[in-house]
Amino acid sequence: MRTILAIETSSDLASAALLYNGRLLARDTSGVQTHSQSVLPMVQQLLAEAGIALAQCDAIAFGAGPGSFTGVRTACGVAQGLAFGAELPVVPVVTLQAMAQACRERCGADEVLAVLDARMEEVYWAQYRFDNDNGWHAVTEPALASASEVTASGQVQVTACGNGLLAYASAFGDKGFAVCPGIVPHAAQVAALAQAELLAGRGIHAREAQPIYLRNKVALTTAERQAKAAA
Q1: Same domain, yes or no, for 158 and 143?
Q2: What is the pLDDT of residues 98-141, one digit of tens each?
Q3: Nearest 10 degrees: CA dihedral of 69, 73, 76, 82?
Q4: pTM for the predicted model, two decimal places
Q5: What distance in Å separates the CA atoms of residue 5 and residue 115, rounded to the nearest whole number?
Q6: What are the Cα distances from residue 19, in Å, to 59, 88, 122, 182, 204?
Q7: Does residue 221 lie within any of the structural domains?
Q8: Measured distance CA(34)–CA(120) in Å, rounded
Q9: Which end of the chain is more exposed for a tag (fewer CB within 10 A), N or C?
Q10: Confidence of residue 89 (pLDDT cuts 50, 70, 90)
Q11: Cα–Cα distance list, 193 to 4, 61, 67, 113, 216 (Å)
């Protein structure tokens, strides 16, 4: 197995994980305003616990988004900085696929609808299917939509996960999904998925790393907020 350092800061939870010698070490902390200050100390703690230097890793993985605009930029920037300094490849991992992986680990689901609160009355979402031969593939690619527009494809039972379900509970209550609670993007799953990506030769140079943005606008104007409230 490869040694992979992973960083995830796309939601209110910041996390770092180290996959090393078949062991997974992880740290996390909440509070979106402190992500940029908390990530590097967590990385240092993990490397110290494993007794290795950053240069002994095989790659740096990060949650590329979609997610918090500032959060995905933070993860990408930190991953790039570490990778440049240690001359390591970077492995971007889609945040929603990491949520699907967490849903499978916790609830055993192979058909997953990952729903992440995007604020502004919208969600980031995607549908994933897992099979033992090929791993995950996207049934519905990551998208930005209102909660009422989220639908599952196919005739199989889908398990939904993510904080978007709670944020817009009225929109999801009658959709008939099974629910796997408590799933948030985490570096542990980013590291696990990056392992397969790296073995498949899909690591990239640090300069090529980019966040995944599905929205150009990150806040409503005062007039738009008032119009939504009136509606």
Answers
A1: yes
A2: 999 999 999 999 999 999 999 988 999 999 999 999 999 999 99
A3: -150
A4: 0.91
A5: 25
A6: 10, 15, 34, 23, 19
A7: no
A8: 22
A9: C
A10: very high
A11: 10, 9, 18, 17, 27
Q: What is the 3-state secondary structure (H, E, C) of the chain?
A: CCCEEEEECCCCEEEEEEEECCEEEEEEEECHHHHHHHHHHHHHHHHHHHCCCHHHCCEEEEEEECCCHHHHHHHHHHHHHHHHHHCCCEEEEEHHHHHHHHHHHHHCCCEEEEEEECCCCEEEEEEEEEECCCEEEEEEEEEEEEHHHCCCCCCCCCEEECCHHHHCHHHHCCCCCEECCCCCCCHHHHHHHHHHHHHCCCCECHHHCCCCCCCCCCCCCHHHHHHHHHC
Asked if 126 and 153 touch (Cβ cutoff 8 Å), the reply is no
The percentage of residues in the chain with a pLDDT greater than 70, rounded to a whole number, is: 92
What is the rounded distance in angstroms from the CA atom of residue 9 to the CA atom of residue 29?
Answer: 10
Residue 61 lies in a domain: yes
The amino acid sitting at 67 is: G
pLDDT tens digit sequence for 75-84: 999 999 999 9
Show the tokens assigned to 154. 């196919």
**Residue carrying structure tokens 């055993």:** 108
Domain that holds residue 114: 96-179
CA-to-CA distance for 116 and 95, rounded, in angstroms? 9
Q: With 80 as the cut, is the pLDDT of residue 217 above it?
A: no
Give dist(CA 147, CA 166) in Å, integer: 11
